[in-house]
Amino acid sequence: MKKLVIAAALVAAASAASAGNLAEPIVEAPVIVEEATGSSSGILLPLLLLVIVAAAAASN
């Protein structure tokens, strides 16, 4: 009876140690979102302001 308990314990330990998946885990790359900015976006607001000031000066 004692040998049967020892054998059962060894079988349980061996099956628990080898449990798992042999395939490599799938790791997805993080998604990086960059906002597209045009080169004219920095100059657009001052140009618009200049046009408004010129229109206001021309109307007087």
Automatic annotation (TrEMBL):
Q: Which UniProt keywords apply?
A: Membrane, Signal, Transmembrane, Transmembrane helix
Membrane-traversing stretches:
43-59
Name used for this protein in its record: Ferrochelatase
Q: Which species? A: Tritonibacter mobilis F1926
Q: In which domain of life is the source organism classified?
A: Bacteria
- Cleaved signal peptide residues: 1-19
